[in-house]
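A common beginner's mistake is to predict each chain separately and then try to dock the pieces by hand. The better habit, illustrated here, is to supply every component at once so that their relative placement is modeled jointly.
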Amino acid sequence: MRIVLIAAQSLDGFITRHDEPGTAFTSPEDKAHFRAALAGFDACLFGSGTYRVSRVFIRAQFPDHPLRVVLTRSPERFAADAVPGKLEFTSAAPAAIADDLRSRGIQQCALLGGSHAHSLFLDAGLVDEIWLTIEPLLFGGGTPLLARHANLRLELQSVERLGAHPLLLKYRVSR
Amino acid sequence: MRIVLIAAQSLDGFITRHDEPGTAFTSPEDKAHFRAALAGFDACLFGSGTYRVSRVFIRAQFPDHPLRVVLTRSPERFAADAVPGKLEFTSAAPAAIADDLRSRGIQQCALLGGSHAHSLFLDAGLVDEIWLTIEPLLFGGGTPLLARHANLRLELQSVERLGAHPLLLKYRVSR
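With all components supplied together, the output reads:
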């Protein structure tokens, strides 16, 4: 199973503009890329912060969309939202989550934020690729791409212009 | 006079690796690009923190190199190092520094960090372009590209691969 971290950030590395939750800052070109890219995945992983921001949108997408797994310390708090096989909540460790998804036949898994989820899976050595949209913006503050110190080397796979100014960079995580 | 911010950062926006001063993390390809790019400038601006880290290197380059202006709150502390027309220290505001350089016939000025110097000149609307090397690294912490919140829109001018994995992105700052 391949795990791909998919995110959009300002040039200076912030996945939110200052304290604004969500990704209202991203370009129409990135939004179109994101929708198209997700069609290639049979599972998505994200944190409960991301779930809270996008809850209405995520729940409106049943039943067409693939398995979504929300990382939370308190899965019981989301029991009313859970739909097994469609929308699940877990406090398991990254390796256990990956094993479970693999055992269920998932082959392509997207990791969709936020910074804590990124760090959790990167620190566990479970992220194979990073697909990062660089918006032509400088924020000087906001939620960083990663929640914790890291020291990871990447291999640039491709560079694509999404329209005039946003860039899509794809990297493989070096082992 | 054109002012170009030239920097190298990790993919997630840090111009130092964690608390390590300097830019030991940058690739040989970026170092070569940086040397070649500087040859096109007749003045360089940087903060006193950058000066302290690179003092021996900077002073070893007399007399071939262009005017270097160091931004500091206490120019008098550096009086022994100052060489008028070669290495100057100033506590003047960005607009006054730019006016002074312009009046002396400077046409191409490079802004070389650190994050406080970047924010000072960007906030004053004095930066025309940003030439940013993106190293294929994730640090999750370090000195950010900017020292303060900003909300700036850029225009992507060019994308160049510096070898296999580092990227050189050139942006114009939108007015």
